[in-house]
Amino acid sequence: MSVHSEIKKITTETLRKMKFDKEKITMLTAYDFTTAKMVDAGGVDAILVGDSASNVMAGYETTLPITLDQMIYHAQCVVRGVDRALVVVDLPFGSYQSNPEKALESAVRIMKESEAHAIKLEGGSEVEESIQKIVNAGIPVMGHLGLTPQSIYQFGTYKVRAKENDEADKLISDAKLLEELGCFALVLEKIPAELAKKVSESISIPTIGIGAGADCDGQVLVYHDMVGMNKDFTPKFLRRYLDLYSEITGAVSQYVKDVKSADFPNQTESY
User: DSSP alpha helices (H): ranges in 215-243?
Assistant: First the structure.
């Protein structure tokens, strides 16, 4: 029996069962083959090929510039590195908001061309028809409520969302709507912990939080933030598990020093 056939793959059903069993769900982003391989080997349940690639891979200020073709490229790279985790891919800005037909077309392209397992999109009742169309086509959809970075210019800020009653009420009704439409899970970003707890308890699909407290059914972080590659990004919700920025710049400095001083390569490193 090969090693691969022994690996139990995570599915959307696995995540639902985890919520039911009160087992927390772990999710991290990845955008390339090598990272995906390491993240998968580390044991995460789900990998998000996030439109945050626009920020951490391409250096843009927002998630808006990244294209569908670029998201498919990143997703292809990730899928090739994964044996176990569920791979979810963000539909980028402009690929689903304008009409449901375009949304379905974008989702189908991601699924066909990358062989990922699910797509994620932002918004509630505003994108109801798009979600319905994608779900009806048999494509698993993860929702995303709270701070929705693709709407940054509408809100004008990355501050905590849904602090006011009106917005909180809409978020709860949107969460219930996404469940009814057939979403298999839901990301809650930067909302009060109390509200996230309320949402998590009021729906049967898993909630995955980022800056939404400990009562969500799971947590997601951007890999580059979690391992400390981005030293300037320090939101309250982020826990850094490594300081790779210092480690890598230190290693590069040492390499430069060794080459300049003719220490590298030495005799044992030469043919």
Answer: 223-226
Q: How many residues does the chain have?
A: 271
Question: What pLDDT, in 10s, does the model give residues 80-132?
Answer: 999 999 999 999 999 999 899 999 999 999 999 999 999 999 999 999 999 99
In DSSP terms, which residues pair with 220 in a beta bridge?
A: 27
- Answer whether 222's CB lies under 8 Å from 30's CB: no
CA 160 to chain centre: 18
Residue 48: helix, strand or coil by DSSP? strand
pTM: 0.95
User: pLDDT tens digits, residue range 203-229?
Assistant: 999 999 999 999 999 999 999 999 999
Q: Given CA atoms 221, 224, 226, 230 in this order, what sign does their dihedral have?
A: negative
> Annotated catalytic residue: which of 126, 189, 201, 247?
189
**Catalytic site includes residue 269:** no
Task: Please state, in angstroms and rounded to a whole number, the distance separating the CA atoms of residues 71 and 88.
Answer: 11
Q: How far apart are CA 36 and CA 166, in angstroms?
A: 39
How far apart CA 143 and CA 26 sit, in angstroms, is 16
Could you tell me the residue ranges of all domains in the chain? 3-240, 243-271
Measured distance CA(102)–CA(110) in Å, rounded:
12
Structural class in CATH, domain 3-240: alpha beta
Kindly report the backbone phi and psi dihedral angles of residue 141, in degrees, each rounded to the nearest multiple of 5, phi listed first. Answer: -120, 130
Residue type, 11: T
CB atoms within 10 A of CB 144: 25
CA atoms of 220 and 67, how far apart (whole Å):
23
User: Could you tell me which residues come within 8 angstroms of residue 12 by beta carbon, excluding any fewer than 6 positions away?
Assistant: 86, 117, 118, 140, 184, 185
